[in-house]
Amino acid sequence: MYNLIVIGYEDESWFENGVVEIATTRFLEYTKESVIEKFKDNIEVIYGYPCLIMKEGKNPDIYLCRISTVALNGRYYEIKFKIFNNNCFKYSDIESLVDKLDIRQQEITRTHWALKEGSLNDLLKYSESNLPGNSRKILKDYLDSFVQRIHIKEHLFSSFGVLSARLTIHNNTENIESVTDFIQKNI
User: Where on the phi/psi map is residue 119: left (φ > 0), alpha (ψ -120 to 50), or beta?
Assistant: First the structure.
């Protein structure tokens, strides 16, 4: 999951100040009902997800950012964010992935804040050959900056409880032969 914020500002003040305002009526526009239902009682959770931010228009620059705070200011949400590495890529660089990223075609022409089911890891896979130069590394570093979930699968082979674990981080898989190996490799 990730946040997508599209803004209609004419100037660059949003970029310089790290603050945008989105009308409350446009919060979670272009978000699937199943996602809204999932988060309706704990909306603050979505602030921790990765975020893409862009201006409205044809082939806009897309910035990776992290939402730092959200405050309700009358009829607007004031969203403070930090741009990651002050670098961007173009919408055309990811256009072939908009279905996987759950971005609808008309969405880039309307100011709103959506929560998407797509995964920015798809951009990283895609970027192996299609995002321009430095953007691949920046995207990987950005995704690495978020806390990753670790999944461990246990298997008991004897009454001694021998553990065979598979550790998954960032879609990279490392086999662990024993609990001791796991602890030594991860401390």
Answer: beta
pLDDT per residue over 12-71, tens digit each? 888 889 999 999 999 999 999 999 999 988 888 898 899 999 999 888 999 999 999 999
Helix or strand run (H / E) with residue 63: strand 61-73
CATH topology classification for 2-144: ph1033 like fold (3.10.590)
Cα–Cα distance measured from residue 111 to residue 109, given in angstroms and rounded to the nearest whole number: 7
HSE-CB at 73 with a 13 A cutoff on CA atoms is 13
The structure tokens 């951009």 sit at 123
Strand-pair partners of 52: 4, 64
**Beta-bridge mates of residue 113:** 5, 27
pTM: 0.74
Model pLDDT for residues 49-60, shown as the tens digit of each residue: 999 999 998 889
What residue ranges of the chain are covered by domains with CATH 3.10.590?
Answer: 2-144
CB 140, CB 159: distance < 8 Å: no
